[in-house]
Amino acid sequence: MKIIIAGAGAIGRHLAKLFTKEHHDITLIDEDEDKLLNIGANFDLLTLCASPTSLATLNNAEIKKADLFISVMPDEAHNIMSCILANRLGAKKTVARVDNPEYAHSQNEETFQSVGINSIVYPEQLAGLEIIHNIKRSWVRQWIEVQDGELLLICVKVREDARCLDVPLRDLCAPDMPLHVVAIKRHGETLIPHGNDVLRCLDAVYFMTTPKYVPYLREIAGKTDYPDVKNVFFLGGGKTTERALVHLPDYMRAKVFEADVHRIEQLDSTLTNPHIMFIHGDGRDIDLLIEEGIHNAQAFVAATGNSETNVLACLAAKRLGVRKTVAVVENSDYIAMAESLDIGSIINKKRLAAGHIYRMILKADVTTVKNLTVAAADVAEFVVKEGSKVTRRPVKDLKLPPEVTLGGMVRGKEGVLINGNTLLQTGDRVVAFCLEGSLKRLEKYFN
Description:
With 447 residues, the chain is of the alpha/beta class. The protein has 15 helices and 22 strands. The radius of gyration is 22 Å and the shape is globular. The two termini are 17 Å apart.
């Protein structure tokens, strides 16, 4: 597949690396030659130092042959314009990154499609929603609802009091049991487990289950003593925080610490929720946090533009007694460090955006792709087509790639866990867990 990416920032570079690993024909365009030098030397792709909004540049990149054009420059106007031009010049599909929440509304999809933009991605919106999903339940590291909530993928860090430790998975996840362990993050490595494997203390475990059995999972994982989140502190009043606050549940109260008084005025005029309080000050100031009652907070979210600040702030909040912390970490080099420090949930906007964009290159009927930041893996939702390979024999006989596991499915309207004896049927909506870079290999089973 020929893919042209406009913008060699964090998202553009991440996408270029991801697609290059799968041997796609990649052209990366940016006006800043320094951004292109390193990636051009280390990855098999073509770089073009020029303006992506120039007709000549797009023609030089052979836009008429492009299967996908992705514009992720800092300026949303440039992204929209370049996608319109790319479409007119022959690109089959286009994706534009935006900063305006209005553009990301589903009711505006038809407007953008009418001018040649197939998909809009707003990373701050994706990150804000991810934050809310994570703080709603203080006992989980990650909570993903798939297939309209009929199935749940829940990441939990198990400790010495967990009942699920040292039990062979063939017993813990037997066919009649209401959960399935799809992956384990252990000592920095993500493992696809098998029946003889056991869970160990401090493993980050990805369980798939159904809503009915969440209390059971919470009990065996040793998480019944975690408090419900009613009060949450936010460090930083940027766009990610703003999008999270828009979706703040009615039962939560939030305090937002922001050093820029003008930004506070903007937020105060935009967000009319009486349960949100804006505080002009440095949220890293321990005395200020104590004065504002951090001992009453069940969650702390660090969402400044500095990854190091966010990690350190979460560590400080942990020491002050906050059970649930969330850090926005944009520097990929800090993700492993943040996980090793046991700070809680980690949000990475570029990986969230990449997952949104990635499904556009898959030929199978993939409705959603979500990236699991800490696990370096993806969760994909496939619709089983008539006559596809997965319908011909039970799952245990499909010879799936070893880095892939099928966690659950929705048949009709009911969520069901998948085991080796499951025979998939046309119309089943299947949730697959794939280590990063292996999703393309799974695609052929659903075509």
